[in-house]
């Protein structure tokens, strides 16, 4: 079971790093960047990579709340 947890956590960190990398290299205004990040975050939640609590935490970070 710990192997599965390790893989899941590794997937979460990789997904977060990708989101940050995309945010750094994205062009356009801040609103479209945030929208893209939120869409990716929603996709990760739908795939089961993020829990509801993790989703809410990252959403708050993106929105600056």
Brief characterization of the structure:
This protein has one domain. Helix content is 82%, strand content 0%. The chain is built from three helices and no strands.
Strand content: under 5%
Biggest β-sheet strands, sense, barrel: none
Query: pLDDT below 50 for ≥5 consecutive residues: which ranges?
Result: none
Number of contiguous helices? 3
Overall mean confidence score, pLDDT: 80
Structural class: mainly alpha
Question: What Rg do the Cα atoms give?
Answer: 12 Å
Question: Which series of helices and strands comes N to C?
Answer: HHH
- Label the overall shape: elongated
Task: Tell me the helix content.
Answer: over 70%
SS elements, strand count: 0
For the record, give the distance between the C-alpha atoms at the N and C termini, rounded to a whole number: 35 Å
What's the domain count?
1
Describe the structure.
This protein is mainly α and 65 residues long. The chain has one domain (2-63). The protein is built from three helices and no strands. Helix 1 (2-25) packs antiparallel against helix 2 and helix 2 (30-46) runs antiparallel to helix 3.
Any descriptors?
65 residues; mainly alpha; 3 helices; 82% helix; elongated
Question: Which SSEs are present, and which pair or pack?
Answer:
Elements: H1 2-25, H2 30-46, H3 52-63
Domain SHOCT: 36-63
Region (Disordered): 1-31
Pfam family, one: SHOCT
